[in-house]
Design goal:
Catalyzes the reversible epimerization of D-ribulose 5-phosphate to D-xylulose 5-phosphate. The protein has 8 helices and 8 strands. Helix 2 packs parallel to helix 3 and helix 6 runs parallel beside helix 8. It has a single domain, classed as Aldolase class I (TIM Barrel, Alpha-Beta Barrel), CATH 3.20.20.70. It has an 8-stranded parallel β-sheet. With 214 residues, it is α/β, with parallel strands linked by helices. The longest helix is centred in the C-terminal third of the chain and has 13 residues. The protein starts with a strand and ends with a helix. It binds D-xylitol-5-phosphate and zinc ion. The site of zinc ion has 6 residues, from strand 2.
Length: 214
């Protein structure tokens, strides 16, 4: 069954704990946390302090998406704050293999993120070292953007690449995921869907999660 990772970027931050429990009760599988530094992307959001505060609120795995420059400098802080997954952008890593090793050294799952214009070949040589590939279906920085359909063949390509290498990795898609675009992602081989506005902008989060799961 496809897993749903609500992005708290679109939650009401004045009652964050409640907003997280609402999607947990609604059947969410992961909590997706968007970390932005105002350099790699033109927005500033969440730091390790907030991740640490969220940790005891939920039993769900915390899927921490780092949209920051120099991720190596912050991986330890996010790992110690309670991240279960840390994903880093290939575009922000000069030594991607080393960064993946660093994440794994904390005993947590490591993932790599590709922006819409980045080809799947960028992960060809590290696919056996990672637990997750996150494909961006918008340009990162903000919630509520339109789904970029050119990600679809990339989903199938990642699936092929994993198969060819005999590894089972999670294939997650992030950005503009709603009831309709979710079907396209799943049909192309995605097994984790991030959704921010399509869940948090709905009054009934359980219904929204079920609609996206299909
Ligand atoms: C975009 C973030 C996404 C975002 C998704 O930079 O990485 O996780 O919150 O929001 P929606 O689902 O509204 O596109
Ligand atoms: Zn994200």
């Amino acid at each position: 069954m496809v897993k749903i990772a609500p992005s708290i970027l679109s939650a009401d931050f004045s009652k964050l704990a409640e907003e997280i429990l609402d999607v947990e009760r609604g059947g969410a599988d992961y909590i997706h946390i968007d970390v932005m530094d105002g350099h790699f992307v033109p927005n500033i959001t969440i730091g390790p302090l907030i991740v640490e505060a969220i940790r005891p609120v939920t039993k769900l795995p915390l899927d921490v998406h780092l949209m920051i420059e120099n991720p190596d400098s912050y991986i330890e802080a996010f790992a110690k704050a309670g991240a279960d997954y840390i994903t880093v952008h290939v575009e922000a890593c000069s030594h991607l293999h080393r960064t993946i090793q660093l994440i794994s050294s904390f005993g947590i799952k490591a993932g790599v993120v590709l922006n819409p214009a980045t080809p799947v070949s960028a992960i060809q040589h590290i696919v056996t070292d990672i637990d997750m590939v996150l494909l961006m279906s918008v340009n990162p920085g903000f919630g509520g953007q339109k789904f970029i359909t050119s990600v679809l063949p990339k989903i199938a390509e990642v699936k092929q690449l994993a198969k060819k290498n005999g590894v089972s990795i999670e294939i997650e898609v992030d950005g503009g995921v709603n009831e309709e675009t979710a079907r396209l992602c799943v049909n192309h081989g995605a097994n984790v869907l991030v959704a921010g506005s399509a869940i948090y902008n709905q009054p009934d989060r359980k219904k929204a999660i079920e609609a996206i799961r299909g």
